[in-house]
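Now for our target.
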Amino acid sequence: MLYPLHHAQEEWLARLRPLARQAAGLLRAVEANGPGPLPLAQAAAALQLLEDVGTTHRKPPFGLTRARTRQGVVAVREEVVQAAPFGRLLRFVKDTPRPGPPVLVVAPLSGHFATRLRGTVAALLPDHEVHVTDWTDARTVPLPLGRFGLDEQVAQIIAWLEAMGPGAHLLAVSQPAVAALSAAALMAEDGNPARPRSLTLIAGPVDPRIAPTREGALASALPPAWFETMEVATVPPGFPGAGRRVRPGAQQMAGSVLADLHTHLAAQLAQLRNLTQGDAAAAAAHRRRYDELRSVMDVPAELYLDTIHRVFRGAELARGRMEWRGRRVRPEAIRDTAPLVVEGDGDGACPPGQARAAFDLCRGLPAGLRRHHVQPGAGHDALFEGPAWAREICPLVREVIEASG
């Protein structure tokens, strides 16, 4: 019953939002025709807040059509390099003969579309040929196309690096840090010519035992069966992926909001002030952000449960116990892939130290190749979007890439 309830709520709110918007418009019109009491403006603003309520499975566009390069402003278009059941390798093609070093940005597969990294891609575009793992909403993947767990995520990263060819660089944001590091290790041990020249890990749970979060503690404390029963649902008839087990995007979104409830409440109160005071620019910026957050996708149950049990509960990679399709993953085999680890000292989702643990695992790397950056005052999202990312972190990524050839 879990999934139909989420879907019914989504459908109901989708019908409610236009009605609330129309009612708010009528109140605004009444207010415009006379002095209008302040409560009228506040009532209209409260109705407009309903536009930020609930979730949708509509994928937002990247909307990146221009990039300012060293050769000037150039046109950008999206191109699908390779398609797979659970995602596409998306390339942002720039209208220039010198697009820059190729970079594969591995987006989190944790409930939001890859467009969540729009700011990440936009900042990289001027100097790099950017590719993105454009993951597919699991409820649209037919059941006969198989499973997608941690092993499959590692395999997909390797396949897409091979599709890009030798000379590419790898950047993983948050959830796929373990998969990206594992892919680099396996490719290094095999002498794969497409192994990444550099590997940037942005706030990923390489060793979640360091400064464990509330979610990490729950993963260790609750029995495995609890997650399969309470956190996973079956896609009902009516969707292409009917019968597939998933972690519903709506449930993931609800968990994220509850984990940082004070921040979201403060944001909604600020939006109420924006709407009441008529600050259209601030209200539009808030709405753009929450439109992105409300756009959710279902995650394959295998990947979600592997993340809980193999990453957070078992810390397999950190303990040297991780296997990929029966083969031991050996980060110490990495010898010529330059790593950059980025963390934020205000990151509650992935505290400092968890990603830096990658250096302890990559024992075969010379110390001179390792770069570690802790962004002062930065929370999780600020590490890959916003001013700190664009002005301080992205230039570090560029430096590492340039130094790695």
Observations:
- The chain is about 40% helix and 15% strand.
- The chain has a mean pLDDT of 88.
- The chain has two domains: 2-54+249-294, 66-216+299-403.
- The CA atoms of residues 219 and 313 lie 6 Å apart.
